[in-house]
Design goal:
The structure is a single chain. The chain is of the alpha+beta class and 624 residues long. 21% of the residues lie in helices and 20% in strands. The protein is built from 14 helices and 29 strands. Strands 1, 16, 17, 20, 21, 24, 25 and 26 form an 8-stranded mixed beta sheet that branches. A 4-stranded mixed beta sheet has the order 2-13-12-11, with no helix packed on it. A 4-stranded antiparallel beta sheet has the order 5-6-10-9, with helices on one face. The longest helix is centred in the C-terminal third of the chain and has 18 residues. The chain is globular and about 80 Å long. InterPro entries: Peptide/Ni-bd, SBP_5, SBP_5_dom. Pfam families: SBP_bac_5 (PF00496). GO terms for molecular function: peptide transmembrane transporter activity.
Length: 624
Amino acid sequence: MSNESDVSRTLSTPTRRDILRTLGIGATASAAGCNGLFGDGGGDTQPGATEIEGGTDETGVRRPAGEFAGVAGSDANSLNWLFTNDTTSGAFVGLTLDGAWAVDEDQNVFPLWAEPSTEDGQTYRITLRDNLRWSGGYGQMTAEDWVYMIRNVFQGEDNWAGYTNAGDWFRQGEPIPVEQIDDLTFEIRLPEVDPSFPLKPVLWGQRCLPKGILEKYVPDKDTQGLQQDEEINQLQYTGNLGPYTFEEWERESQYVTTRNEEYYIREADDVGEEWRNVPYFDSYTIRVIAEESSRLNALREGEVTSAGIPPQNAREFQDLETVDVYVQPQPFVQAIKYNMRANGWRLFRKIPVRQAFVCAVNKQTLADNLYRGFADPAFTMQPRFSKWYVEEGIEEYRFGVGDLYGRAPARSRMRRAIEDTDYRYDGETLIGPDGSAVTLSLYASSASRTNQTLAELVAQEVEANLGIRVGIETVPGNTFQQKYAANSPPSGKEVPWSAGAFNGGPRGVSVSQEPWDMSVVLGFNTYPRTPSSSATFFRTRGNVNYYGYVPESNIPELYAEASSTVDEEQRRELFAEVFEQLAREQPFGFLLMPSNIVGAQDELVGPTETFASGWNSQTYYFES
């Protein structure tokens, strides 16, 4: 998920793992005009790119210089990445830990810690570099660390560790076999062929923990101990594994890292000259600035290196000589999330009701006016720029535009849905079983004015076209994650399964701390390169299914079949079926695919206006 105002995804850390994580918790960066940084989450702090003494030394090697200052709209949840799935937390950790590999602009694997290889698309051999070192006395990173972590934590019985992405490591309910080959090599043996596996976020950007830390908690399945481990929560194990070293975290204020003088990749002989002395900033700080106008003013005044720009401010910053503006395709879809769990509105479990809500909202008006043309209407779980997008099949489900927008299509679907219920219309107003007018809650991000305005417009349209009152609440992205998205069964109540913090069990039992009905706080990753990765949103036991969706068609099965299909044209046909069913069922109300808009001080060299911009952000530098 992505935080609507947490972190800009323009220039993400090389792995972009948490951006491409399902729960880049929040909403699309630019969708809400978020904050911005050139990193998987990123930050802002100190005096941006001023007073730089960069350049190259006598051997032609670029010298590090300056302080990178990024910004986030709300704070991270934790530095213990096992239990987080939001972009800001990922950004913080990602500055100190690279991950397995990155994917470049040509969709090629770029080895960071490791490189994958396969002969059949089913068994993948993962080979680690030989110069990866933990700190804290844990020695060299080895294949044993990985295999122990995967088997005992990611695939731990009943997900005892509460790992947020445990579902990635199972197929058809069974753990994916993982075997150590030697000190630096392990194999992953998939149950079926999956030619896109290296491009999926299963291992792309996956982080690791030393076996020496984990083995203190695995034997007794000590979840609390693992969550509270000081070495993990203070990033005391990161060694030479990332471009920066953790210095301090002032809650709700700033996160500070300094250049890692031991960074492993500078010793690599399989990377280009631009990597010889990375990173090229002396420090990288992420400042937490909740108020959107304050973030923009900091960018305008040169106090931060980069910041996300809301659509309504884009033209202004494009006219500034001191700021470069990057408008990039991005993978997060903005949608109305419906709470179908026991503490939400039960009618959201009906397909016609979910369709009615998106028929009530004029998507084209939102795209043209609120987003100033920096967004397109969305109808399913894939952006138009993806090679997997197929128009055919979803024409009749283009809710929210043309004849499928307005009172008539919205109310006809709602009336059909309530025929067998105690709900009824009294004139223009929908009345509930208790005889009172139906009023629902809608949560928006307190860090983004664009997101709040989106919520206000949705509320107005729903009341006008469906006769349902909507009360708007604003909360920080991290608060929404903790109190509204995360869910679990009541104390003492057992559930037959748990998929992690954001899907603690069946929707009739596992609920969030606070009740809610609708939300636009979080943006969901469509995975344009590997669409099957988004299946986790639509499986009953998906690890990001915090809203309690239960598919009525064979969506999960179609995803699985597409994932294992080698022939590209057949795969495209299967994805077309997936997207058609998603457009029909509307697991959440698809609204928009916004562009990512980020401004950076013009001294910064490196970003591009491409979808993959940021994969090599360690090589960015300030022009002297």
